[in-house]
Amino acid sequence: MVASMCLVVLCIVLSLFAHGKAWSDYKQALTKSILYFEAQRSGKLPGNQRVTWRGDSAIRDGSDAGVDLVGGYYDSGDNVKFGFPLAFTITTLSWGVVEFRSKLAAAGELDNALESVRWGTDYLRKAHTAPNELYAQVGEGNSDHACWQRSEDMTTPRTSYKVDASHPGSDIAAETAAAFAAASIALTPSDPSYASDLLNRAQQLFDFARNHPGLYQNSIPVAGQFYPSSGSDDELLWAAAWLHRATNGNTYLDFLGNANNIGGVRSMFSWDDKFVGAQVLISKCDFSLCSAHSGEDGAHGRNLEPIQERGRQFICSVLQKGSNNVKLSPGGMLWWQPWNNFQYTAAETLALSAHSDHLSAAKASLLCPAGVVSPADILAFVGEQVDYLLGSNPKKISYIVGFGSAWPNKVHQRGDSILSMKKDPSPVDCKGGFDRWFHSPNPNPSVIEGAVVGGPDADDWYNDDRENYQQAEPSTVTTAAFVGVLARLI
């Protein structure tokens, strides 16, 4: 009898491993993902800094404009603080905390996740210098990319760029409003006063975005060379959805219900296209889960169904159950484009994870053209994509640096590709960094744990070469979304 029971338990364990990674794998990947944000910190590092190969950097940011813009996160493998993707990073990182707070707490990572959010909002608060004024970038991409230096000893210009009433940027203003609103929800339990300030700033920036339309790259041309915005209707919808969730009032539901552009059925969810995120958030209203109001005076009295339906159609296409499915690689990886493809996997799986829980809470399923999909089916698909990332792929490597037994060790990132100043404080000059470090055939001297590289090509091939920036460069927007996804899978 005992032997039979042991055999049953063994079969269950083997079955769990056959259908995905172990709980401990997801937990380890989550821990490393949050740690990555400490490696991307700009400014004066705190006493509890765990990534010890980093040092203080860019401690005079904003001095050219007479403001304090010290802090925040470097964008990807460079030393520029691009405000547009940075704000999206904070929004999606906060979304993971809001949706999966209990999971993060159970994994012992809630405090670290909240600290990562707050490091970002502390900087964004500094950047929001007046109700209608927002600093959108520090540093300039072309001069930065012409050098290969650690952030601790960079010599490139740290020019500050802003949008205001005379030089609008409704897209970045609305995205920062979304970041503040989402973060306010995440931080309310631990610091209600701070969260209240974030919410007030979110409302100010949303009004700024509505009242002063215009794309931010028209006001800051250098930003458009690297992160051009295709429009601001998606950011406004996204910000309104978060503000509604933060305030639980009718004002922002009215905006959502009267929106002229709801995006249609999208092909992706990204730092430049937030329609899917807004559609998924608004879909909670379909289950009376997003508002205390209902009936003719609440969510269901507004014409939100078209927005919700577009989101459902997109999710079906990601799940391979739609009428225009997202491409899969031969190894089963969702595929959008060659440059940092994993950023889309991260954002989309976060949206799917959230919607799975929305459906589950309402005891509902998703009706797709190819059949009915249960919340468990959605989460299983998410698990398959994450398992690919963690090593269940044709290359048999983890695409999260520091996880597993094999991962990319020539990451396109300045800080970890150059010997830490803690080991050699000698400054690295602008061009010398290329010869000695960038073109080196050796692995990076430091390990940037938790960084998610851009990922393989459409045929599952990955070239571990730091000069191959399309595949080898990590980004905060990618890891931010995966934090919530990994938390949900635990």
Description of the molecule:
The protein has 19 helices and 7 strands. The protein has 490 residues and is mainly alpha-helical. A 3-stranded antiparallel sheet has the order 1-2-3. A two-stranded antiparallel ribbon has the order 4-5. Strands 6-7 form a two-stranded antiparallel ribbon. α2 packs antiparallel against α19 and α12 packs parallel to α14. The longest helix has 24 residues. The two termini are 32 Å apart.
The chain-level mean pLDDT equals 93
Strands ordered across the widest β-sheet: 1-2-3
The N- to C-terminal Cα distance equals 32 Å
How do the SSEs run, as a string of H and E? Answer: HHEHHEHEHHHHHHHHEEHEEHHHHH
Q: Using only CA atoms, what is the Rg? A: 22 Å
- From the helix content, strand content and strand pairing, which structural class follows? mainly alpha
Tally of alpha and pi helices:
19
| Helix share bin | 40-55%
Shape: globular
Number of strands: 7
- Report strand %: under 5%
What profile does the largest beta sheet have?
3 strands, antiparallel
Extract low-pLDDT stretches: 1-19, 291-301
